[in-house]
Structure of DUF1416 domain-containing protein:
Amino acid sequence: MCGAPKQGGALAGVDLSTQTVIQGQVWHDGAPVAGAYVRLLDSTDEFTAEVVTSPEGEFRFFAAPGEWKLRSLAPVGRGERVVTADVGLNETTVAIS
């Protein structure tokens, strides 16, 4: 069983003026992908964290500002997306091909 926190929901109580949040959804063929693993990799492709998407395909990471790679792994395939995250809320979508 994965020890990742529950994904989705609001960011109540999170000070977005001091926190860097990377969140979004994983999609495949026009639909969200539940139960996909999303890995957060730093600029050197070093593994940093991993979460499992919610039933709505949602994921969230708290990270430092900078360039990050999101890698999604699911039975239907895999996808990657590079994001440059600033302090605040950084939203993105990872498409699985």
In short: Confidence is low (pLDDT under 50) at residues 1-5.
